[in-house]
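**Backbone description:**
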Amino acid sequence: MLLSHGGRRSAEQTGAWLAARLAEGGYIVAEVSGQRPRDPATALGEIWRRPAELGQALDLLLNDPDWQMRIDESRVAVAGVALGGTAAMMLAGGMIDEGAYARNCWTAHPSADCDWFATGGIDPASVDPQALTLPRRDERVRAVLAIAPEYLAEFRASSLAERSAPVTIFGLDQPAPGEARLAAQTGIEVLPLQGADLYDLFALCTPGGAKLLEEEGGDPALCGSTAEERGAVHDQLAESALDVLGRALPLPY
């Protein structure tokens, strides 16, 4: 299981809690943090760098003497959260529409990074079109778990209708733009996480987490839910993810 968690400004190992839960379920899990961008300009290409990094990580593992003997190449899965979920879907053959991506910040459903791009004077339309539209399909990937993936409305439905691996979308309490369209046009299963918002997919906060974020100029909403509420979402996601994996890639014992 390759795991890519969080958006452009997430800290490394943000998905450690989910990696641990999947590993407890019997899977080898590699969280691929990737290189985090320094500023909005370097962040613009992360949408296509993420799937490339996941493929490179799989190459490294399958060619590593210590790991290659432990990995069944016929049972490789990818899970991703937010932009990581977008990357995971691209590995199954999903393609982002270049024009739709360029217009995203001027739609009714702008990306959470649009304001950040604007403060840096970056226009998403300046993304490298060749890199963005280069097919990222990886035939080695046999199952995809896309958890609150970004840019659902910007995916070409036709590319996912011909996906190379089963894709399951785990949605939030409020459906994302494009979620219902993709489900209807591609047959992708959408499993809503009851009572969850995006920040509930991150690790549990310390008791003083919200205050610390506010003092450091961060968003205290990142720690807006209680430990019990967030823990319930974690349990729900972990159990559902293991159930989906068990059906897609059943364990050999």
Summary: Strands lie at 2-4, 30-31, 76-81, 141-147, 167-171, 189-192. The chain has a mean pLDDT of 91. The longest strand covers residues 141-147. The CA atoms of residues 32 and 54 lie 7 Å apart.
